[in-house]
Design a protein that fits this description.
Length: about 325
């Protein structure tokens, strides 16, 4: 990665983190309705993968989808408007935090049904194969979602048809409030995927460079017609399953220790400044710009137009001709 690539990657990492931190603050005011599931701590996975993708490539996300949307290039102001339920939001306020989509960016949507994204992304990969397209499809799923049958059905079909499909498993150690060891017989998630007949690797999801390298290899293979791959990336979840989760299943000391030892942003900063690839001044300038962007996004969201009752009938059915 050259200087501009590294600066762009840092910008996206910082944007993901600040979007989630600001969402958390605003959620606590009661102005954002429903549940929200924060991606903070896992940013290096989404950015490391999506740095290799174009707008033509398709991704599908989970209930914890803000990071994937932003890494794929979705507009943060339009996303914040969506969280506020504004008609100027990416989905006109009808998607909310767990169902954001932006087809212009190849973001097929976040999905609150655990494991549901894998077969949808297989459909997108099949469309690429059948129409002579050049895009790849990527699905993100949490470690808890790997016990859903549809995920393995999707993996099997992707292998049988040799589809340009990447399965990204984000292992934060928790399926909602249940530790993975209590719910999964074989903790080696890469081995489980490899048993389906595809290349599968496990990487440190806190290390942006490790994710970037592994994702690049898998995506390049898919583009060459080499079929599907699985990438298992382990990274901590800094907050609860959802905002308001009291996290009685882990101690405050454990969470604080995770932030000290396993934060992708300090790791990235230490590497690029030690190597001399980026300067502290350049990084500080990015931080200031992202803070301004987030202030602007929240201001737009608070002032954005709200739906009227009649809007409930709009954009309900698709028209194909």
């Amino acid at each position: 990665m050259d200087h501009d690539d590294l600066l762009g990657a840092y910008r996206r990492l910082r944007l993901l983190r600040e979007f989630e931190e600001r969402t958390r603050v605003e959620f606590q005011t009661g102005q954002i309705a429903g549940f929200t599931h924060l991606y903070a701590g896992m940013e290096a996975i989404a950015v490391g993968v999506c740095e290799h993708l174009t707008d033509e490539d398709r991704i599908i996300s989970t209930h914890r989808g803000h990071g994937h949307c932003l890494a794929k290039g979705c507009d943060p102001a339009a996303m914040m408007l969506e969280l506020w339920g504004s008609t100027d939001g990416l989905c006109r306020g009808k998607g909310g935090t767990m169902h954001i989509a932006d087809f212009s960016r190849g973001m097929l949507g976040a999905n609150a049904v655990v494991g549901a994204g894998a077969p949808i992304a297989v459909g997108a990969a099949l469309a690429s194969l059948m129409t002579g397209g050049t895009w790849v499809a990527v699905s993100f799923v949490g470690d808890g979602g790997t016990n859903i049958g549809s995920v393995y059905e999707a993996m099997n079909l992707a292998v049988v048809l040799q589809l340009p499909k990447i399965f990204v498993i984000e292992d934060n150690g928790w399926g909602e409030m249940t530790p993975i060891a209590n719910a999964t017989g074989n903790r080696d998630l890469a081995a489980r995927a490899a048993a389906m007949g595809m290349p599968a690797v496990a990487v440190d999801g806190v290390d942006f460079f490790a994710v970037h390298a592994a994702a690049g290899e898998a995506i390049a293979r898919a583009r060459r017609g080499g079929g599907p791959s699985t990438l298992v990336a382990s990274a901590p979840r800094f907050y609860g399953h959802h905002e308001g989760d009291p996290q009685l299943y882990r101690s405050r000391e454990e969470i604080a220790d995770l932030r000290r030892r396993e934060d992708c942003l300090p790791r990235f900063i230490e590497r690029v400044t030690t190597e001399g690839s980026l300067t502290a001044a350049e990084l500080a300038a990015v931080d200031a710009d992202i803070a301004r962007i987030m202030d602007d996004a929240v201001a737009k969201a608070k002032a954005g137009p709200r739906p009227v009752p009649g809007d409930v009938f709009d954009h309900v059915y698709a028209r194909y001709r």
